[in-house]
Amino acid sequence: MLLPGLPAILGGRVAAGSAALLLWIALLATAFLGWERFLRALSGTWDERLALATWALAILLLAAWSRREGRPERARRAWPARTQWALAWEAFRKNRLAVAAAAVVVLAYLLALLTPLLAPFDPALQGELTTERLLPPSSRHPLGTDQFARDVLSRVLYGARISMTIGFVAMSISMTIGTLLGAVSGFAGGRVDTVIMRVVDMVLSFPRLVLLIAIIAFFEPSIFLIVAVLGLTQWPHPTRLVRGEVLSIREREFIQAGRALGLSGARMVLRHVVPNALAPVIVAATLGIGDTIVLEAGLSFLGLGVQPPTPSWGTMVADGRDNLFGAWWISTFPGLAIVLVVLSFNIAGDGLRDALDPRSRR
Amino acid sequence: MTVFLLRRLVQAVPIVLGIATLVFFLLALAPGDAVSFLVSPNITPEALEQIRRNMGLDQPVHIRYLRWMGSMLTGDFGISLTRNEPVRDIILAILPNTLTLSLSAILLAFAGGILIGVFQAVRHNRLADSALSVIGLFFYSMPSFWLALMLILVFSLGARNLWEWPIWFPASGMTSVDYPFMSPGEQIRDRLAHLVLPSLSLALVLAAGIARYMRASMLEVIRQDYVRTARSKGLSEFRVIARHALPNGLIPIVTLLGLYLPTFFSGAVLIETVFAWPGMGRLVVDAIFQRDYPVVMAGTFIFAVLVVIGNLVADALYAIVDPRIRYE
């Protein structure tokens, strides 16, 4: 009980068990080694308190998981009935690569939330410009320092917060808009459908980056603007997806039954149509977060996204351009962080697609 | 066939009009107007008002809208605020550069993606297939501008300065400094050398996506009965794949052309910035930082129209390669 993961290892699930054990040790080690920071964080900024809360939550979740893992097989089945989601989860669990990728995603978000307790330096803190500028990776600065003598590792960690939060929030906005518009468009049909689909065609005709920079050009770039425009330009894809799905759902018996019962249009769409069209949306959202992170990085790279000194992976890659040959580490590591996170999202999304599609589950 | 293409052409007209409208409302909704960047202590309010009147900015919105639509349709995009040249001339001079980069990248991406996809399908579920899938997903997850920087680091800076490889590629611009003094043969070589890294970094990311589709499509085709027939009548494996399976496997790939075109142009904006390539993307980005609104609007519009044209071409190709598709 004291060591989460141990029951799982003894029960034969070595990979999951040792991952949990390592995470447990790592979490305790951060608290043990950085206890002064933890104490300071108690009365610190909201950022630091959020990190503390995340830390406590992670510890509790791990302990709870370990307790359940210790119980006999029957009691720990997640869903007593075999719903669509339970079946999908069973299928997803068998895909080891996808599970590993999902674990990396969770770990990345955990790292991002815990950053105030973990990062060795303040990301905006400039070191001694004469002696600590452009230092190669060393034990003091594991990923080196940049042209303002700032620690690259700390900046990559803080950049994860910005980039991954933007990706998540923007994707949530666009998926909500897209799902609703698509459901309305497919369900209503007729003139409403035609108008919505023509607008979708039009927005899709713009290369997305060009549309984004055209919008941003007229405003002052800020994080809120980036989230808003990323969220408000992605919706055509989910709209198309959901519309196609709804067109086939519309003809099924349970919708006819709903009509016969005299349900209102809004209730039909929200309670009966949308939940049944959700599977492809979840897949598209998972794959889309990766795309959004890359796009945000591109905007920031051009100087139209997150503004310095706030670290984001895109701006960091741009920072390293001037010293590409002399200090390759400045551009390389934030880029690798993007690749790792986006790759994990893509693999997890592929796994979800296979798991949620009953045809490929055989 | 001709009727179908004509109909698609007619359908494209409202989309282009809609795009122009969308671009106009972006401009109209934005805070401040094209003149506000001129505001400074050195310029009197009267002079500003005069400039506004000259540009027609004192007119009500609907008049400006009609004028805007008229000028878009006649190809008159106004005058650049920073360069004092007609925007049309600037764009016409620069458009070929972007098209060169995009087209060579598209060619590379499709050729590479199709080859890899077919190879993977033939080696289905073997080591080479899985390895290429993972490598492909790795490139697919990569930001193209970062890949570009890494390519520069290795094949330009590293190859030239550190390892002294016999071959390295230039990292910026379209031509070398001494381009005008080269012989015609050298000039072509110089241009090609400058094209290698930009088009490669644009193409690699998308080739990975194309390979995924190609693999899935070929796996579908290889299972068909007629392919088994071709095998059983004793044709060589190469001939079965290349002559019998490939043409049908290629059909879904044609739609990717239309689908990926916006992505190519988006990528071109970033790649042009990295490689200092004098194209449309860099023009628009520079114009944004200089608040040169006419150039931004015209550039956005042209990009969108290029995508519409590209989609038309993809539709036409699709109708040609797949005789089952018939819209009358």
List the helices and strands and how they pair.
The complex is a heterodimer of chains A (362) and B (328).
Chain A: H1 6-10, H2 14-33, H3 35-42, H4 46-70, H5 84-94, H6 96-118, H7 152-188, H8 190-205, H9 208-216, H10 223-233, H11 236-249, H12 253-261, H13 265-276, H14 278-301, H15 313-319, H16 329-356
Helix pairs in contact in A: 2-3, 4-6, 5-16, 6-7, 6-16, 7-8, 7-10, 7-11, 7-13, 7-14, 7-16, 8-11, 9-10, 11-14, 14-15, 14-16, 15-16
Chain B: H1 2-29, H2 45-55, H3 61-73, H4 87-122, H5 127-140, H6 144-162, H7 184-222, H8 225-232, H9 237-274, H10 280-289, H11 293-321
Helix pairs in contact in B: 1-3, 1-11, 4-5, 4-7, 4-9, 5-7, 6-7, 6-9, 7-9, 8-9, 9-10, 9-11, 10-11
Protein architecture, described:
The complex is a heterodimer of chains A (362) and B (328). Chain A has 362 residues and is mainly alpha-helical. Chain A has helices at residues 6-10, 14-33, 35-42, 46-70, 84-94, 96-118, 152-188, 190-205, 208-216, 223-233, 236-249, 253-261, 265-276, 278-301, 313-319, 329-356. In chain A, helix 7 (152-188) runs antiparallel to helix 8 (190-205) and helix 7 runs parallel beside helix 11. The mean pLDDT of chain A is 81. Chain B has eleven helices and no strands. In chain B, helix 4 runs antiparallel to helix 5 (127-140) and helix 4 runs antiparallel to helix 9 (237-274). The longest helix of chain B has 39 residues, at 184-222. The termini of chain B are close together. The relative contact order of chain B is 0.14. The mean pLDDT of chain B is 83. Chains A and B meet through helix 8, helix 9, helix 14 and helix 16 of A and helix 1, helix 5, helix 6, helix 9 and helix 10 of B.
Overall body shape of chain B? globular
**Approximate helicity band of chain B:** over 70%
Number of continuous helical runs of chain A: 16
Determine the strand fraction of chain A and express it as a percent band: under 5%
Question: What's the shape of chain A?
Answer: globular
* Largest Cβ-defined interface: A-B, 46 and 55 residues
Q: Give the tally of β-strands of chain A.
A: 0
